[in-house]
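Batch manifest, entry 17 of 40.
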Amino acid sequence: MLMRSVPERLRHGVRAVVRPVGEFVHVSAIYLGLAVLTTLGLSLVLPSMRQQSQQLHGVVLAMFQADGGGYASDDEGDLQDWAPPSPAGGPQDAGAQPAEPAGGDAGTSDAGQAGPAGQAGGPETGRPGFAAALAASLRDQPIQGVTQAQAHALRSYLARKYRIANSVAGALIRTAFDVGGELKLDPQLLLAVIAIESRYNPFVESSVGAQGLMQVMTSVHRAKLRPSGGPAAVFDPVVNIRVGAQILADCIRRRGGLEGGLACYVGATGPSDGGYGARVLAERRRIALASGIPPKN
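Output type: structure tokens
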């Protein structure tokens, strides 16, 4: 009886040791597999994130660069190294503006040629850039056609609702009124489009590649961005508003009205735009009520 109990106790002892060892090996294998999968995932994601962060860093530098600096672009318009100012104060490849294919709706194809009034702003084109608009906002300089009380009310509404700095809201309002005056567009319509498209995030990107405040498709509107430095300039708020406003103005002209123009801008080709136009016009009404500035037709 004693001889039988010894092997049995031995077996119990072996099981007591083997079971936790087996569980440890099993858990270790799971964690090792997760570590391998995580490493593979990071190896695929990090290079792309690094490239995007470097691009955004370059854009931020360009936004606040003093007049006369710029980015050089190659034949395809891609961003390259920082270029020193040319003797004339413009980009080194100034005057090289290749033709841009016309036709098609915004978001799917180009919305027409970039005329002198529709080119992007900034130091390269002689127009004030974002740094200048921000400085004017900080100094509370008046906006043509708008009272100080209206400008303050509009700036307060946008800053509070979209959680942006008061001075930045003022700079974007100033840009919208400058661009709207040039293109005969209601500035508050531009501000409403920005609200619906990006909620005032200048670095946002959609799943189809639309970028910036007014969600401009850089792959489609490359030629419009070329005078301001290429595709990366789409993240400059002033450039984005100018290019987006030009596309919207061309859409309104081709579709014969505001509702059709908004449908064109969002890329709707059928009878319905998914409620996009209604959302933009509703936000324009709210902006106009907050500012006390009547909307323009």
